Amino acid sequence: MAIDIPVVILAGGIGERIKILTSGKPKTLLSLVGKHIVEYVLNNLVGIGIRHVYMVINNPKDFEDIAVKYGRYLEIELIQQKKPDIEGAIISAKDSIHRDFVLLYGDIIAPRDMYQELFSTYIENRYSVVLIPEEDVESYGTAVLDESGSIERFIEKPIHGYQSLYVVGGAYILPKEFIEYVESYGNVTEALNTINNRYRLKPCIWSGWWIDVEYPWDLLRASLYILQQIDRSSISSNAKISPNAVIEGPVIIEDDVEIDHYAIIKGPVYIGRKTYVGSHSLVRSYVSIEGDTTIGSYTEIVWSSIQKNTTIGSRSYIGFSVIGFNSVIEPGVITLNIVPEEVKIARSFKITRRGREYVKIGAVIGAGTRINAYRVLKPGEEVSKL
Amino acid sequence: MCCNALVKSLCGIIGIVCGSRGTEVFGKQLGLVIRDSLLSLEYRGYDSVGFAIVVDNGRIIVRKSKGKILDVEAKLGFIDYDGSTAIGHTRWATHGEPSDFNAHPHTDCSNTIAVVHNGIISNYSELKKKLLEKGHIFISETDSEVVPHLVEEFVRNGFTVLEAVKQLVKILKGTYALLVITSIDPHKIYFIKNVSPLVIGVGDRAIFIASDIPAFLRYTNRIIVLNDGDFGYISPTNIYIENIDRGAIDWRNRVRVIDWTPDMAMKEGYPHFMLKEIHEQPIALKNTLFSIVDEVEEVSRLLINADRVFLTGCGTSFHAALAGEYMLNILCGINTTTFISSEYIRFKKIFREGDILVAVSQSGETIDTLMAIREAKKRGARVIAISNVIDSAIPRESDIAIYTRAGPEIGVAATKTFTSQLLVFITIAVKLAKLLGSEIMSTIESIERELSELPSISRNIINIYEPRIKKFSEKLKEHGNAFYLGRGIGVPISMEGALKLKEIAYIHAEAYPAGESKHGPIALIEEGFPVFFTVLNDEYRELILGNIEEMKARKALTIGLVPKGYEEAKKRLDIVFELPRLSIYTASIVYTIPYQLIAYYTAIGKGLNPDKPRNLAKTVTVE
User: Fold this and answer.
1) B466 touches chain A (CB under 8 A)
2) Count of alpha carbons within 13 Å of A74, Cβ hemisphere only?
């Protein structure tokens, strides 16, 4: 089924809160289980039958490969972002959009059904917005519903303790004049309120998983959901797996990976191209190693996101951590990850093990950073070369 | 008989005739129109599906398979078939394997007659025996297959199809709604209705006939509800209805316009009907409140003169009836007896003239409840129906009906219809209390005030708790068991909460009056066992503290729905959902909503489809 409505994807943002990982590149190009973040949106659009996609970006060169890769299924046009911020990105699409359109944030990761739900309202001829029931609304744009279940208004930054808000899910169907309102108000929330007053935006309450990649930790949350969906293992015939390595549970092992003697891989785990896992190392649940990475021997990695082209030395322990691309972890580095009870960290993880609840979070290591041998990193510590 | 295991079914059927091909009338192939209609009927059952369509040269093509519609869509190829006459079927087997052979439609020996059937033909084995003797060949083990062969036999003996259909009304025993298409008369769909529901939809360019209104609601809202013994045909230009007892009927007098808009029967941008229907409750409650005034007036007058009052229902409707009993007891001082419909037989010697039976059924077609009211009526009792479906069987057979008017409910798990049933009971209880003077006026007035605020209170509850419950359910989904405890009217509310968790999240949940713990169930408690407490702002509120303590002492995970600011309860609970301080009557509705959301999000967390719980059907029309 083809759906004839243009889609605008905002993919250019650097992401203030995640910039130690991006090193100036758009955050939608961070890797997650073998794909760039923005590819999750594109994949879902292909599945739904969308044809025309406009991607608003900073530097066309960054996205050329993606445009070629998806060009077989989608007509992708790259639009250079002219002014900063989300408002600037939306205004940049003004000359391309002459009718109703779909607006998607490129840093949102959600299953296809969420987009399907949104598009079903287009078939009913309604303008609409995806809303997410999230408990912690403080860092998001939000909407209030009225008695009839319609949207009363949008609130940009909710006051602490304000209850009964839904998080705006970064996916909309809107009339083209929305862009003009953004231009004249210079503010998305106000433009949404104006459109809502005129057309009554239909709320699409999405009850499934949904990740807005804003903090480094969101990558871990996202890889959890994506790795959980792996229902069978796939190991490239080009991968070299030692006969006495142990591979358990669902894993994806890509081309030219080498798993050395006595290494243990305990799924769900993703190991990207040209990665080497040294002898006696343990790579366990919810680890995504994006590729071109070397892991020394006797190293343990759990629930972490390892971006491309990194080296993790021998006898290290990496847990609940995110490691940026081109970084080097020298041997013997330990990431502590059990947060002491009195400390609060935004978007940390509650894990229940054997009846006890722990709040866990590891380290964030910026792109191109070197961590000296035998260093011990504290829970929530961020290290970057800057 | 042993090799012919009777495959009983609970089904949805649809027939469409239009003047020209589907692509010209609907802008898409008739096969796709049939598919969409079947999707709207899927709540009636979903283990096999099929359709028959008359193609250009009058040939009938039958496509059928076991499986859910969307799963077998490609296999059946709805999109490949266009025409102007088609019938379709979605089926739910109560016993006997769903299979391709047993799927409908069924055909005669020469493939010139195709039939879809909802119901049970009880004398099918003798009919089948006679047909086999005459050389007819059967390929399925269903009762339904006798119908095309009977039509074939009559036509062979010189009857017209209409005459043949009329003969069927006389010889078929059991419950049935039947649609018949033939190569002889390719522009007509013949129908017969006895007990099983059948509705005609009168469109401008097409005529529809289906088990239920949502099947064609997107195309027309002008409907004709058929009665038992009705038969006839629909064609693009004409509708012919005859009743076996009363002769030909002018259908124009029976057309009614229903007020559901087409998109009301669709999901409207929600991922599931269940979530949509939970969110619709504020509106549904408002509709119920405004539309039942006259009916409640009349019902209250009946009740006040009753010798004895009985309440009955099945599943969720039983919980509403039980809550109704508490209300009539507490607010009106009226003694009542509430029973589960399928247990009606024990009242055979008890029902008598002067009794009133209040029968609660969302669909109005629940067979056990229907049987119970028939028994009561036979013994001289009068019957009040509370239903959501206008002109359904139970309201039709009752002396008076109150319609909840909550709009169509497609999700198999009842949500908005339960809370609107509760609202009907509250309204009745308040009316009776006024008539009887059983409660002081200020209390009654404060309940009425709460009722008028109910839509906005319930909206707030959804908005505030949906995110929290979504998160909490991530925890609950890891458990295999749960208890739901309450006291007073908190008991039926707890029972409903437990039922919701069972039926869509597949977690074993048990509800009982909290005081019962020490008489047995507490033996099951171990560390982390989830126990929900329905704590209302009533005279039980101190008593239930002890029950929380005893669970906590055994390290249960205690979760409470408590009145706002009730610190004594809060400090004893692991997880607290604070709700407004309300009378127990309105609280029964408000407290139900978090329980619905808990079940919904737990199902989602487990990756289940809450709209399609395994082994369940929306309307249970078999005993």
Assistant:
1) yes
2) 29
- C-beta separation of B50 from B62 below 8 A: yes
| Residue A362 domain boundaries | 218-383
Is B618 part of the annotated catalytic residue set? Answer: yes
A270 to chain B, minimum CA–CA distance in Å?
22
Q: What is the mean pLDDT of residues A307-323?
A: 96
* Binary contact (B269, A121; C-beta < 8 A): yes
Tens of pLDDT, residue by residue over B462-504, are: 988 998 899 899 899 999 999 999 999 999 999 999 999 999 9
What's the number of domains chain A is made of?
2
My answer on whether B171 and B304 are in the same domain is no
Mutate to test the interface with A, among B39, B274, B470 (most CBs of A within 10 A): B470
Is the CB of residue A133 less than 8 Å away from at least one CB of chain B? Answer: yes
Residues B343 and B465 in one domain: yes
CATH assignment of the domain containing A287? 2.160.10.10
Out of B267, B295, B310, a domain closes at B267
First CA to last CA distance, chain A = 49
Q: Does residue A121 sit at the B interface (CB-CB below 8 Å)?
A: yes
Burial A291-307 (b: 16+ CB within 10 A, else e): bbbbbbbbbbbbbbbbb
**Which among A148, A164, A203 has the least Cβ separation from residue B269?**
A203
Segment A369-374 shows an average pLDDT of: 96
Whether residues B250 and B285 fall in one domain = no
Active site includes B11?
yes
For strand A202-205 and strand A128-132, is the pairing parallel, antiparallel, or unpaired?
parallel
Checking ipTM against 0.85, whether it exceeds it is no
Tokens 């109005």 — which residue? B364
Average pLDDT over residues B431-450: 93
Interface test with A, best of B266, B270, B601 (most A CBs within 10 A): B270
Task: Render pLDDT for B507-553 as a digit per residue (tens, 0 to 9).
Answer: 999 999 999 988 989 889 999 999 999 999 999 999 999 999 999 99
Mean of the pLDDT values across residues A112-138? 80
Cα B495 to Cα B490: distance, rounded to the nearest angstrom: 9
Q: Cβ separation of B268 and A202 shorter than 8 Å? A: yes
Torsion sign over Cα B162, B166, B167, B169: positive
Question: By residue range, what is the domain housing residue B286?
Answer: 276-605
CATH code, domain with A71 = 3.90.550.10
Are B56 and B169 in the same domain? yes
Cβ contact B464–A144 (<8 Å): no
